[in-house]
Amino acid sequence: MTFAGRRSVSSKSTLFSIDLLSADPATPPASMDITFPMTATFDEGRKFDLVILLVSYNVADEAKGKLFGWLRRQSAAGAHLCGMDTGPLLLAEAGLLDGYDATCHWTAMASLKELSANTRIVEQLYLIDRNRSTCAGQAASLDYSMAMLRHMCGDALYHLVGNELIYTAPRSAELRQREIINPQPFVTNPLLNRAQRIMQENVESPLDIETVAARCGISIRELQYLFQRHLNTSPKKRYIALRLQHAKELLLYSSMSIRETGLASGFMTPSAYYRAFLAVFQTSPQEYRNAFTKKSRVYGRNLY
């Protein structure tokens, strides 16, 4: 769904008017059996001040051409473009995030990095960079909306709306979207936190465990002891789990082939990738992607 707003120049009139457009008119957005009425189309020549592209899953390929053309025209006319949830993937695919800093819902972050080599991708609630903004969606949408209200209308209206919503302390943009699974050991043991961060930063070309230990400034024996004591697993198994997590995220939103998602997650052969994925998730990479595409899961993005 696309939200487009126009701002009034007169302080005595309505400040904003909002139109709703469907990224894929053949399947208008619906949630909880509620269909949202579309109030504008991409064929109209109207110009907007702010365009919010809200996407949770995928947009049909046949609908992208018209959407991308409309977004480019709005950008050329001076609109501020925002991608929300997985909307940044479409902005990147349209070439509208090149040279910007951006974020998105964490499940799509791996795919966004693959799509947009000229964009610096960071995991945080939202990010406003000149005439582009990106947001993780979900609850972060409210934090972003308050920040944009302040950006566009100033402090007075920002505080009035915050009081009305009983939301006087929005979260800062830089907060991370998610906590590490089983976070307590990493909070209380900085070495484990550092080891995992090193592993996450070296997914495509995995390091050997000796190198991870050396970069943490400890022996491999001590690293193995810490993982076993706090996480009841080995560094090797934890590393594989992080690589498989990365693979699952690529399977959701990227256009990469199954083999390519394996290579991007550090598996040199399809057979090694398949065996590791099946052993942990009891399904194959292809079956996992198919199930998500068909939305057969109760909550398709529940990756843990």
List keywords for this structure.
304 residues, Arc Repressor Mutant, subunit A, alpha/beta, Rossmann fold, 2 domains, globular
Characterization of this structure:
This protein has two domains: 2-165, Class I glutamine amidotransferase (GATase) domain (Rossmann fold); 183-293, Homeodomain-like (Arc Repressor Mutant, subunit A, Orthogonal Bundle). The protein is built from 13 helices and ten strands. It has helices at 61-76, 87-93, 109-115, 140-153, 155-165, 183-188, 190-201, 209-216, 220-231, 235-253, 258-263, 270-281, 285-293, and strands spanning 2-7, 16-21, 30-31, 34-35, 50-55, 80-85, 101-102, 120-121, 126-129, 132-135. The strands form three sheets. Strands 2-1-5-6-10-9 form a six-stranded mixed beta sheet, with helices on both faces. Helix 1 links the parallel strand 5 and strand 6. The two termini are 27 Å apart. The model is unreliable at 182-187 (pLDDT under 50).
In short:
This protein has 304 residues and is of the alpha/beta class. The chain has helices at 61-76, 87-93, 109-115, 140-153, 155-165, 183-188, 190-201, 209-216, 220-231, 235-253, 258-263, 270-281, 285-293; strands at residues 2-7, 16-21, 30-31, 34-35, 50-55, 80-85, 101-102, 120-121, 126-129, 132-135. Strands 2-1-5-6-10-9 form a 6-stranded mixed beta sheet, sandwiched between helices. Strands 3-4 form a two-stranded antiparallel sheet.
